[in-house]
Specification:
Elements: E1 2-3, E2 12-17, H1 25-39, E3 43-48, H2 71-82, E4 85-91, H3 99-108, E5 115-116, E6 125-126, E7 132-139, H4 143-148, H5 153-166, E8 171-177, H6 184-199
Parallel strand pairs: 2-3, 2-4, 4-7, 7-8
Antiparallel strand pairs: 1-3, 5-6
Helix pairs in contact: 1-6
Length: 202
């Protein structure tokens, strides 16, 4: 985890490299966003999923006896609560996010923290409000196929059923594809785009 030097109220950015491997394009995206955001004066907290130690399986627990958060999960949760803008990078694997990343959300987005059940209401109260998010997905699936034939399912899940469900709004999703066939020049073009988003915390 890395923390930026400048403390500005309203300017806290949390970055999670959600790739379970140590080296990846997702890490490169997180690196570029972190660098440009810090250069712009934002306070940045950074986590790498590959370095985090926790049990990603919620197991047989219910919300009433949810497992205690491990130290890495607690630190991430504290940063998530504090942030104004959340940046997530991850690859598209089998139409979704990596299992360990999904497990992180399973473990930390708990009632009383991320949302609150409301008696008689169809949906819970969102507790992580006044926060925005940008999710960068890397994929070997062409953008046109991802949207037209697959319905951009992972984008809908993260926007409406995960981050949006607990209060993040708006949630922007950017898909970089196709990664397998991309050249160094194409990847640098993607990273330049990421850097521009970082300069204004978008």
């Amino acid at each position: 985890m890395a923390i930026g030097n400048k403390e500005n109220k309203g300017n806290h950015i949390l970055i999670l490299n959600g790739h379970p491997a140590g080296s990846s394009l997702s890490k490169g995206i997180a690196d570029r966003y972190e660098q440009k955001a810090q250069n712009a004066g934002y306070h940045v907290a950074r986590f790498n999923l590959a370095d985090m130690q926790f049990n990603s399986d919620f197991g047989q627990a219910t919300y009433k006896n949810a497992p205690k958060l491990e130290a890495d999960l607690q630190a991430f949760w504290d940063a998530l609560e504090k942030c104004d803008h959340f940046v997530l990078t991850h690859p598209l694997w089998w139409g979704g996010m990596p299992a360990k990343l999904k497990g992180l959300f399973d473990r930390i987005l708990l009632p009383g923290r991320a949302f609150a059940q409301q008696k008689g209401a169809p949906l819970p109260k969102k507790l992580l409000t006044n926060k925005t998010a940008h999710v960068f997905i890397t994929s070997d699936t062409p953008n046109w196929y991802f949207k037209l034939f697959l319905g951009a399912a992972i984008a809908k899940q993260i926007k409406k059923q995960i981050l949006g469900y607990v209060g993040f709004s708006p949630v922007q999703v950017t898909n970089f594809a196709t990664t397998k066939a991309s050249t160094a020049q194409v990847r640098e073009k993607w990273l330049t785009k990421v850097g521009k988003f970082a300069q204004t915390a978008r």
